[in-house]
Amino acid sequence: MAWPNRGIAHRPAVTGVNGAVASAHPLASLAGLRMLQQGGNAIDAAVATAAALNVVEPYMSGAGGVGYMVIRSADGGDQPFVLDYIGRAPAAATPDMFPDEDTKNTGIRSPLVPGALGGWLMALERFGSLDRATVFAPAIAYARDGFAVTIKNHQFMLNSRDKLREWATSSAAYLHDGETPIPGSILKQPDLARTFEAIVEGGAEPFYKGAIAAEIARFSQENGGLITEEDLASYSPEWQEPITTNYRGYDVFCPPLPCSGMQYLQTLNIVEGFDMGAMEQNGADYIHHLAEAIKLAVADRTTYAPITSSPIDLLISKEYAAERRAMLDPAKAAFSGGDRYTSSKVAEEIRPGSIESIMKESTTHFAAADAAGNVVSCTQTLGGGFGSGVVHGSTGLSLNNFANWFDLDPESPNLIAPGKKIEMCLSPSQIWRDGEFAMTVGTPGSFGIMQTTPQMIMNLIDHGFSIQAAIEAPRFKALRGTSLPVERRVDPEVLAELERRGHEVDVLDAWTPFFGGGQGILRDPDSGAFFGGADPRRDGYAMAL
User: Fold this and answer.
1) Fold of the CATH domain 1-47+57-115+235-387+398-545
2) How far is Cα 205 from Cα 211, in angstroms, rounded to an integer?
């Protein structure tokens, strides 16, 4: 089967027969590839990649963060497994502990209980084949000996410099004499190396119930934070079943509620009623129909995703999609309420669908795959740049700031509360056909994840792009009202027509990380060979063997 670059991709799609790894940094992808070269499987590769990203992309994800893995096991089964390692709100996280949005968005009170380390080790224990020492060896070496800072490393770290300067521990971990490390300089993280060495020795125990937990809690409590040793000791990742829809013969899987992935499943269901493949890819009709479908799905996601008892099977049903599709005006842009829940609506705003009517009708992404049939699709994050911006004591770990993703509006279903699970924008996909793995693609990007992901999936399924072309193709995002940011590479005549239809087009840089950083792997159904793709909007890099 041919998967052409369509004149869009500036890089080749990396090919291999024994396995592939695609991540947001070359050294992290290399760490995963080393596991495959040493006889490990895709789960070993994924955990090695995750740990390495903690070192070489420390502003995006790490052991102090949260995430989801979607795992296909070589042992078979009719669907993949979901591993949820989204930490819960601390027991002291009541709304009155956050007097303003800034307290929730950054700093010592903003972290949820860190779940990523627990998730990595749980995946490794259940499905991995190599020991912890082997899997964590690349990350420990990168942290202890240092790595060369890239241009994009510098740019992202510069964005968080002032936040890091507020904490002596953070400044010591990531800055050089209070300044952002310049490209080509060496960044060493000895405290993080020691933390990983303790994890190799003791597993999850020191992190959640031992010396590392005590240090995290001590630093948090002494500086006005909320996380306690009890919060850490009570945490455990969860195995879950995915939710799924079928899009033009492909089964698209993602994590269940309160994961926000329902939004892109619903988006795909809505646009399935249109011949998107016959429309010019990123032409005016194509962008308009997809943007309007996204707006309809956003209205439902902000209302129903935080409520785990929502009727998800019905919300992502074809029948409900037909109801929502009927609201789409092919000639005029509708007004979106935006990505966050608001209790006050404007008159022209798209409303969520009615549960009553339904009931009557009944920020990093990476992937790894191996020749045996194991596949891991993972999206994990610290939240904002370096998460909370607070390295907790001597651990070398910056914890997440995912309290920010809770709401303080008392009417919101996503109101922060003790021990509560958050509506989570992370939503890695796996796509199967006829019971076999076909492709996986995902991205960071906060709530934009649910808009970039279907664009990449449709580039693959509707237009037959290579995995690299699907990732590189220009993107757009439907924001509040009729705002429509678009990458500059879209034809100006297309943009003019979108404006005639009522979209407020905002032309952004040609390769802006505003639209995420996609990574993916496609399996050729005829030969079984792998194609890896990675996003040049960040330091993305795919490797295969």
Assistant:
1) Glutamine Phosphoribosylpyrophosphate, subunit 1, domain 1 (3.60.20)
2) 9
